[in-house]
């Protein structure tokens, strides 16, 4: 028993000897280094020959220049108000702000965009007013989200598209309780002008808005190049009037949406999955088209670089929480003339990217399957469909007894 009890004491002694030896070695090394430093005299601090922060090179393309300026304004490292170094690095172009009133015509574009005069008129108008985001709201529905909707359907439309809106109201955009969840629909409109060859339909629109209480309208020129403006105005409206909506589906007024399947998908999400939800028909590794004959033409004088991943603007689904964050991010991103690319830019500003979902078919489905009820029951969104086709397809969704063709 005595022999067995003496073993731990021996081990402790051995460990103590090892610790003392290691401590002496460390002291010896430290003394040697100290003696060498004293003998060699005071040491100079080495100053790097290059700046830690690179000097930012100003782009030659107008949109990129404007974005660089916003990046500086919203970056505390480079902000001139916080860093004297920034004033030295960017003395010239930081103050190239254009008119003080952001909604005045920005005539810098005439001299800073070399081929401005050759661009389509609506593109010219977009560039002249690219910085303006403040437009009067002509029709509002401030109480439409009082019931705290599970799903808000936000549909981009034009004033003359009465038939499309009515088809949506009678089918996939029917407001109320759907699959035991509250669904609310709003239609997003600008103003159509005689100069764009539109008739005066404001009286009819006013009647429609009072009848259905689902029309939102702002006083800006509703054109292809202003779809981005429609996007940011909706983001602002949502943040003020509907932040309690859990999910938002944004789409065009010529898409078909299987709302039942959308609700079913959303109910199966965890809180973690729901927080940053943004799904759609994602386009990656894309860049600007340089062919002047194309609808999506973007000249080098306006933008250079690749596009971030983005979901096709025909329709996509995201969380309400992310909509609010996108609104905040949009204040830091210069308006871009293609709305779905712009939304991708705002997502990237948040450090996010859209997720591809095979249920979104923004480029349609194979022709031979377009009359099959089973196809539409398995999908979330299909683009594009006429009002008559939407009215025909919807019963296939809500009446499962109808067999597949």
Summarize this structure briefly.
It contains 14 helices and 12 strands.
Mean pLDDT: 88
CATH class of the largest domain: Alpha Beta
H/E topology pattern: HHHHHEEHEEHEHEEHHEEHHEEHEH
What's the CATH topology name of the largest domain? Spore Coat Polysaccharide Biosynthesis Protein SpsA, Chain A
The appropriate CATH architecture of the largest domain is Alpha-Beta Complex
Topology, number of strands: 12
Q: What is the distance, rounded to the nearest whole angstrom, between the alpha carbons of the first and last residues?
A: 90 Å
- The helix tally amounts to 14
For the biggest sheet, the summary is: 9 strands, mixed
Q: What is the helix fraction of residues, given as a range?
A: 25-40%
Molecular shape: globular
Q: Could you list the spans in which at least 5 consecutive residues all have pLDDT below 50?
A: 1-7, 47-53, 82-89
Q: What structural class is derived from the secondary structure elements?
A: alpha/beta
* Tally of discrete structural domains: 2
Question: Mind telling me the C-alpha Rg?
Answer: 30 Å
Q: How much strand? A: 15-25%
InterPro entries: Glyco_trans_31
Transmembrane segments: 16-38
Family: Belongs to the glycosyltransferase 31 family.
EC number: 2.4.1.-
Question: Overview of this structure, please?
Answer:
This protein has 405 residues and is α/β, with parallel strands linked by helices. The chain folds into 2 domains: 62-128, no CATH class; 137-358, Spore Coat Polysaccharide Biosynthesis Protein SpsA, Chain A (Alpha-Beta Complex). It is 39% helix and 15% strand. It is built from 14 helices and 12 strands. It has helices at residues 2-40, 62-73, 84-89, 108-112, 121-128, 162-169, 202-212, 227-241, 259-267, 271-275, 320-330, 339-349, 373-378, 387-398, and strands at residues 137-139, 151-156, 176-178, 181-191, 215-221, 247-252, 255-257, 278-283, 310-319, 355-356, 360-361, 381-383. Strands 1, 2, 3, 4, 5, 6, 8, 9 and 10 form a 9-stranded mixed beta sheet that branches. It has a 3-stranded mixed beta sheet with strand order 7-12-11, covered by helices on one side. Strand 11, helix 13 and strand 12 (381-383) form a beta-alpha-beta unit. Helix 6 (162-169) packs parallel to helix 14, helix 8 (227-241) packs across helix 12 and helix 11 (320-330) packs across helix 12 (339-349).
């Amino acid at each position: 028993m005595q022999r067995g009890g003496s073993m731990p004491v021996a081990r402790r002694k051995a460990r103590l000897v090892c610790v003392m030896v290691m401590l002496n070695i460390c002291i010896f090394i430290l003394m040697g280094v100290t003696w060498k430093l004293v003998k060699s005299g005071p040491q100079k601090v080495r100053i790097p020959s290059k700046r830690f922060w690179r000097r930012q090179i100003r782009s030659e393309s107008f949109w990129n220049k404007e974005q660089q300026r916003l990046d500086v304004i919203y970056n505390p490292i480079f902000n001139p108000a916080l860093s004297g170094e920034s004033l030295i690095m960017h003395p010239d172009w930081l103050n190239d702000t254009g008119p003080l009133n952001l909604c005045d015509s920005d005539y810098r574009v005439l001299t800073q965009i070399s081929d401005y005069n050759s661009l389509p008129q609506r593109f010219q108008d977009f560039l002249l007013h690219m910085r303006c985001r403040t437009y009067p709201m002509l029709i509002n529905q401030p109480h439409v989200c009082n019931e705290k909707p599970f799903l808000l359907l936000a549909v981009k439309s034009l004033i003359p598209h009465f038939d499309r809106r009515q088809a949506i109201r009678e089918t996939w955009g029917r407001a109320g309780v759907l699959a035991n969840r509250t669904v609310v629909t709003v239609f997003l409109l600008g103003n159509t002008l005689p100069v764009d060859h539109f008739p005066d339909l404001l009286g009819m629109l006013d009647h429609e808005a009072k009848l259905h209480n689902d029309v939102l309208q702002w006083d800006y020129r509703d054109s292809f190049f202003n779809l981005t403006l429609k996007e940011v105005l909706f983001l602002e409206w949502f943040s003020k009037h509907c932040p309690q909506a859990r999910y938002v589906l944004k789409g065009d007024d010529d898409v078909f949406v299987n709302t039942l399947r959308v609700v079913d998908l959303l109910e199966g999400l965890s809180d973690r999955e729901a927080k940053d939800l943004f799904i759609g028909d994602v386009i990656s590794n894309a860049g600007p088209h340089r062919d002047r004959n194309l609808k999506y033409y973007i000249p080098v004088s306006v933008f250079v670089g690749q596009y971030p991943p983005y979901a096709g603007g025909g329709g996509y689904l995201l969380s309400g929480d992310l909509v609010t964050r996108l609104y905040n991010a949009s204040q830091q991103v210069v308006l871009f003339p293609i709305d779905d690319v712009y939304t991708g830019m705002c997502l990237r500003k948040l450090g996010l990217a859209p997720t591809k979902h095979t249920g979104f078919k923004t480029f349609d489905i194979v022709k031979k399957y377009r009359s099959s009820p089973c196809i539409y029951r398995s999908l979330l969104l299909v683009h594009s469909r006429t009002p008559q086709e939407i009215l025909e397809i919807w019963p296939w969704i809500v009446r499962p007894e109808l067999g597949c063709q």
